[in-house]
Amino acid sequence: MLSLVDLSLVSVTVPRMLAIFWMEAKEISFNACLTQMFFIPSFYVMESGILLAMAFDRFVAIWYPLRYTTILANNMLVKIALAILARAVAILTPAPILTKSLESFRTKVIAYSYCAFMAIVQIACGDISEHIVYGLMVIVLSVGFDLFFIILSYGLILHAVFRIPSWEARAKALSTCGSHFCVIALFYSPVVFSVLAQILGYQMAPHLQIIIDNLYFLVPPMVNPLIYAARTKQMREWMLRLLHCRIC
Fold it and tell me: GO: which molecular function terms (predicted)?
């Protein structure tokens, strides 16, 4: 499911970005902008939900290994997938509706490579307090919620792992979480940096904002397959052979 969402996220972001950078296609219709505003954040919220589900999977595997297949049966996995999809749709559906209610804008230029909701709101005229509240709610109910419970899950996992007397068993337990932790760090780091910059009142240069914005959507889908593939025996052997050949 993570691979499918990664592919979908890249499919809705990369073509437009390439059109901007290669073909100077810097204009977009209002309806296309609203479409971007719904689908791009929706896939991002879905991926965040999948990372939370994977953290829960690791938690169950460490704390309840004998009940793992019972707790995470196929019907439960289907329910989790549907909940991730439903949450993304429910949270992001109001975004294009609220944007259509805006009457006029001070400029038609935004410092983003796609139509971000808050970027559009910030250039709007009139009262935008409701839109700002909605934007904050989206962050809290998606990334904020997921990141809190991911940290909680890993805190409980580490608590359980360090109670294991055998060092070998500890290392094996931690190795099952290593790749997932790397993916989480890559996925959430740009978001946390951007949010902290806004809270602290740091005004980023437009080009820096665009770079960070692109890191949200391009780096995790590109690196995720490499991180998870590195854990497979065949991939490790291939990488070792490649390094050995280069050294020789």
Answer: G protein-coupled receptor activity; olfactory receptor activity
pTM of the shown model: 0.82
pLDDT tens digits for range 172-214: 777 777 777 778 888 888 777 776 666 555 666 767 777 777 7
Tokens for 195? 């949010």
Q: Identify any residues that bridge with 124 across adjacent strands, giving them in sequence order.
A: 105
